[in-house]
Amino acid sequence: MFDTKIAILIRDDLAAWQKLNVTAFLASGIAALRPDCIGAPYVDAAGRQHAPMLGQPVLVFAATLQDLRDAHAVAMEKELAVAGYVEAMFRTGHDAANRAAFAEADPAATDWAGLALHGPKRAVDKAVKGLALHA
Asked: Least CB-packed of 8, 13, 117, 118 within 10 Å?
């Protein structure tokens, strides 16, 4: 049905609250980067409008740090849209500090907490190959 795919990869050794936090941040990154992925607003039975959301399924995968590094390399090679969250961002208190922590991450050895990917199905599938859906 869709020719593109959204995948969120979350490091499997994070605390539950961290996994949920990172997932929310990463989904918002894809929504901001790819506004064409946003569906129409939702309207309830009383006619009240609610915010639109991503209009296609979002698959969430469990990953090790090495899985995240490998997926990031494939995503860069395939020119996928990528949102990333690094471990150091858990120790910040606001957006500017998050950006600074992200900017300081070593590109050759990034301590990823999670990644979100969007692009053609085959390219995203290659980036998440071998990963299991998060339980």
From this structure: 13
Topology at the third CATH level for domain 4-39+50-127:
Bit1 (3.40.1490)
In DSSP terms, 9 is beta-bridged to: 61, 115
In our burial notation (b when 16+ CB lie closer than 10 A, e otherwise), range 45-55 reads: eeeeeeeeebe
Q: What Å distances lie between residue 43 and 19, 40, 48, 123, CA to CA? A: 29, 9, 5, 34
CA distances from 71 to 24, 41, 128 (A): 19, 32, 6
**If you count DSSP H runs as helices and E runs as strands, how many of each does the chain have, helices first?**
4, 6
Q: Which segments of the chain have a pLDDT < 50? A: none
Question: Would you state the pLDDT for residue 118?
Answer: 98
For 51-61, the pLDDT digits (tens) are: 999 999 999 99
